[in-house]
Amino acid sequence: MIPEKVKSVLDQNGLEALEFEAGSTPTSEMAAAKIGCEVGQIAKSMLFKGKDGRFRLIVCAGDKRVDNRKLKAALGVKARFATAEETEAETGFRPGGVCPFGIDHLPIFIDKSLSRFEVIYPAAGNDASGVPVSFDALGELVNAEFCDVMS
Predict the structure, then answer these.
(1) Residue 5, SS3?
(2) Strand 18-19 vs strand 129-130: parallel, antiparallel, or unpaired?
(3) Alpha-carbon radius of gyration of the chain
(4) Mind listing the pLDDT tens digit for each residue in 64-108?
(5) Angle, CA 37 vertex, CA 141 and CA 122 arms, to 5°
(6) What values do phi and psi take at 115, rounded to 5?
(7) Is the dihedral of CA 6, 146, 111, 41 positive or negative?
(8) Reported confidence tier of residue 22, pLDDT bands at 50, 70, 90
(9) Distance CA 58, CA 136 (A)
């Protein structure tokens, strides 16, 4: 079930989530197989906690890995992955279903690795969903800053 805060954002912007009945899709590979797209089109959302104590959400292509040097340069501070508990407490979403929709209190960064696709699929607040959207539309919708933090 799509959380209400996500459904509200999607409805207001004419977007519709794909929901999967048969099991969850907590990994990019599993989500791509369910949707029928390339792994890179899966827009995985990862929460990072900087040495300054602040959290930042990074949305990137499912077929890429974070480059710590680039991440530090983009954020201006060394950062680590947030724990599952921190992620749920800060975003309201469990790992595997974290998405940029309905998050107004955190800086959101979208990695340029997603720009190579016409359609990308961020989760919709749970690990059995995806929202077809363009790179530019997602950036505008969630008021994101674009970055280059993947290798």
Answers:
(1) helix
(2) antiparallel
(3) 14
(4) 999 999 999 999 999 999 999 999 999 999 988 899 999 999 999
(5) 25
(6) -70, -15
(7) positive
(8) low
(9) 15
pLDDT digits (tens, 9 = 90+) for 104-141: 999 999 999 999 999 999 999 998 899 999 999 999 99
| Ordered DSSP codes for 50-98 | ETTS-EEEEEEETT--B-HHHHHHHHTS-EEEPPHHHHHHHHSS-TTS-
Q: How many residues does the chain have?
A: 151
Cα separations in angstroms, 56 against 33, 35, 39, 61, 91: 28, 27, 23, 17, 10
The residue range of the domain holding 21 is: 4-147
Amino acid at site 54: R
Cβ atoms within 10 Å of 136's Cβ, excluding its own: 11
CATH number, residue 84? 3.90.960.10
Which amino acid type is present at position 87? T
Q: How many domains does the chain have?
A: 1
128 close to 20: Cβ distance less than 8 angstroms:
yes
